[in-house]
Amino acid sequence: MSIKAPLRPAPGERPDVLIAVVTYNSAGLIERFLRALPAALTGAGTATVVVVDNDSADGTPDLVRTLAPWVDVVEPGANRGYGAGINVALRHTRARRGVYVLNPDAVPSPGSVARLAQAVEDHPDVGIAVPRIVDRAGRLKFSLRREPTIRRALGEAVLGGHRAARFTAWGDMIRDAEYYADGARADWATGAAMFLAPRTLDAVGQWEEDYFLYSEETDYALRARDVGLHVRLVGDADVVHPGGDMSVSPWLWSLVAVNRTRLYRRRHGAVAGSVYWLIVLLNEGSRSLLGRPTHRAAVRALIRGARDVPRSPQPAAPLAAARRS
Q1: For 216-230, how does the pLDDT look when each residue is reduced to its tens digit (9 = 90+)?
Q2: Domains along the sequence of the chain with CATH
C-alpha cells in the first residue's frame, strides 16, 4: 500500500521545503522513514521530497517508487558519495523556506520540519537548524560538536573521546545533556539531519564532494560559520537515528580518520595539518595495539593516504545510513 503524500506544490511552483535524502542499499530501512515524513511535514507548507540513490543493488529506488509515488527518485548511475548526492538534490529545485538533509534511517518526529524552518526564519544569524537526535528508546544522543583543533585531537588521543568531551578545550563532542536545550549552539553537528536556510545555500553553496563520506557535514557547517551563520539546536524537533555502523566497520572508520585529517589540513595548512595527522595516527595506532580491526585499518589508511580507502562502500555499509550521531 502506498503512503499518503505530504502537501505538494502546484505544477511550476517552488516548494516551501525540500527534503533531500541520499540512499545506498537502504531498502531495509526506507519504509519507516517515508511513513514518518507526511506527519513530520505538518505545518511546514508544501514539500518536494527527493531521494538520490547512489547505485543501490537492493532495489531501493523501485521500493521508494512503489511505497511513495510522490517522491522524486533520482539515479545518477554511480556512487559518487554523500556530498555529491546532496548536491544532486539541491539542483533539483529551489525551496522557499529551506532544505532538510536527512539520512534514510533518521526518522523525524511529527511537526518537526516546521519548527526547524521557523528557527532559521526567526534568527537571521542561524544558517543550520538541527533537531535533537535520539535513539529508538528516546534517549538523547550527543550530536553537537566543537571545531576540530590540535588540542582536541590530543585530548582525544590521551584521554579518550568520552573523557576529553568533559572539557571544552580538549574534546570535540559536547556530552553535557543539559546543554541540549532549545537554542544551543555548536560549531557543527552530525550530518544525519540538518535544515539549511536559503541564506546558507546562497552564501556557502554546494557541499564538497571529494570526502565521499564523513567530514563533509563538518566542512559545510564550518564554512557557514566562516560567513557568520551558526548551527542552532531546536529542542522540540526530534529525529530517531540509531546509527552505529561506523564503530564496527573498518572501512567506515578509515574514512573518518583520513577525512578528518584532510579537513584540518584544508582549513589550516600543511604544517598544522601534519601535526594534526600525526596525533590522529598515534591515537589510532595506540588503539590498534589492542587488536581492534577498525583502528588497524585506520592506521593503514592514514599512512597511505586517501588512496588506501576504497571509493565504493563495502556491502555491509549502507552509505547514507552509516553516519555517526
Answers
A1: 999 999 999 999 999
A2: 17-148+173-242 (3.90.550.10)
